[in-house]
């Protein structure tokens, strides 16, 4: 495989600068049974949680040095073979875990043996985005066995809001009566979508988004470790703004673009969002049917976020401000602000917010997009 991945530093003892305060607030001597880390997608929550899991499984007696990266526990974790670490994550996120080998039919379990030809999966098989009830039950049932190394057991679940109701109820039972020395690290991009009964049983930790200067400085450092990627500073800043100031999301998008994997979901979504922006820049002249046809196969949530950012910038320009997400399109936004009807724009914004609430539901994305883009066109019609 020649495809570039995240720089290896991401899974070492380095915590993103904007998350170090959060890290320093953790007390490993009196750690709760369950924490829920929430915040915008792409700010580094997942990498933070993986490093935290490693620290909780570290066997060094010196708490200030966790993870020590020297003990057997750290060694097992770094090689993806720690028997007391159970990640419940979609197939799309397993590449971000420590070097591990997973059975494709049992994603929550690590393969401790070499895979034979019969275990091989077709390369074209689409990766699953959700966590099944079978995976959740298997992970919960394994807790009754006891710790393999006599220390903590850690279960990492992401994204928590994507758990089906039956899986969430299975998790809730364990949170109500947590097994001894078992720690749940739960992550959510949208904490408002997590069951209140689960939230109430966790210590909530908010992962902040960095300011632009700090985020861009981190990106420059990460890109410096990947000399194969050549990108101008101006382009990085533009993508940074378009991604809502989420550094990890920007880095992932740049790597995906470099790899030129047209089937990569993120690559498809970024390309579709640019088509969407070009169309929305047309205002009343938007061909909403054609646009929906071109972009509907991309991630619906990604497209909704793009529309929200565009509308947010348009509202800011109408009020005389400077665009936050698409500053390079300020002239286009100023032109649209002259014909946009404020009341209709507000109604469209409410429609977008409502759509975000069901963005992960198996709806007909094309039909939903057609309805939204048709409403957007009406914003500019008298």
Task: Sum this structure up briefly.
The protein is of the alpha/beta class.
Walkthrough of the structure:
It contains 15 helices and 7 strands. The protein has 382 residues and is an alpha/beta fold. The protein folds into 2 domains: 8-112 and 125-206, Rossmann fold; 262-378, Zinc Finger, Delta Prime, domain 3. It has a 5-stranded parallel sheet with strand order 2-5-6-1-7, sandwiched between helices. Strands 3-4 form a two-stranded antiparallel sheet. Helix 10 packs antiparallel against helix 11 (288-295) and helix 10 packs parallel to helix 12. The longest helix is centred in the last third of the chain and has 19 residues, at 300-318.
Record the SSE blueprint:
Elements: H1 20-24, E1 34-38, H2 45-57, H3 72-78, E2 85-88, E3 102-103, E4 106-110, H4 133-141, E5 153-157, H5 165-176, E6 182-188, H6 196-199, E7 203-206, H7 212-224, H8 233-242, H9 247-259, H10 265-280, H11 288-295, H12 300-318, H13 330-337, H14 342-356, H15 365-378
Parallel strand pairs: 1-6, 1-7, 2-5, 5-6
Antiparallel strand pairs: 3-4
Helix pairs in contact: 4-5, 7-8, 7-9, 10-11, 10-12, 11-15, 12-13, 12-14, 14-15
């Amino acid at each position: 495989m020649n495809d570039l991945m995240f720089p290896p530093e991401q899974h070492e003892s380095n915590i993103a600068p904007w998350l170090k305060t959060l890290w320093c607030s953790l007390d490993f001597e009196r750690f709760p049974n369950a924490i829920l880390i929430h915040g915008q997608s792409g700010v580094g929550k997942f990498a933070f949680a993986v490093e935290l899991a490693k620290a909780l499984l570290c066997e060094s007696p010196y708490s200030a040095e966790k993870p020590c990266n020297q003990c057997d526990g750290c060694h097992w974790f770094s090689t993806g073979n720690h028997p007391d670490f159970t990640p419940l994550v979609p197939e799309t996120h397993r590449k971000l875990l420590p070097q591990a080998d997973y059975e494709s039919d049992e994603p929550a379990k690590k393969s401790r043996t070499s895979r034979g030809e019969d275990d091989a999966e077709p390369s074209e098989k689409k990766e699953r985005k959700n966590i099944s009830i079978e995976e959740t039950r298997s992970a919960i049932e394994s807790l009754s066995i006891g710790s393999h190394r006599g220390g903590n057991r850690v279960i990492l679940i992401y994204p928590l809001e994507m758990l089906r109701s039956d899986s969430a109820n299975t998790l809730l039972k364990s949170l109500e009566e947590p097994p001894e020395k078992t720690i749940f690290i739960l992550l959510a991009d949208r904490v408002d979508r997590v069951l209140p009964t689960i939230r109430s049983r966790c210590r909530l930790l908010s992962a902040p988004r960095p300011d632009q200067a700090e985020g861009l400085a981190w990106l420059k450092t990460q890109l410096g470790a990947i000399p194969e990627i050549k990108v101008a500073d101006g382009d990085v800043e533009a993508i940074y703004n378009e991604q809502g100031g989420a550094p990890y999301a920007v880095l992932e998008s740049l790597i995906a673009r470099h790899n030129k994997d047209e089937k990569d979901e993120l690559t498809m979504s970024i390309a579709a969002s640019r088509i969407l922006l070009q169309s929305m820049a047309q205002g009343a002249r938007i061909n909403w049917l054609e646009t929906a046809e071109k972009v509907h196969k991309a991630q619906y949530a990604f497209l909704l976020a793009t529309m929200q950012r565009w509308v947010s910038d348009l509202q800011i320009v109408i009020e005389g401000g400077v665009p936050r997400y698409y500053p390079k399109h300020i002239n286009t936004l100023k032109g649209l602000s002259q014909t946009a009807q404020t009341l209709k724009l507000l109604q469209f914004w409410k429609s977008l917010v409502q759509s975000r609430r069901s963005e992960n539901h198996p709806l007909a994305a094309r039909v939903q997009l057609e309805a939204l883009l048709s409403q957007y066109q009406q914003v500019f019609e008298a």
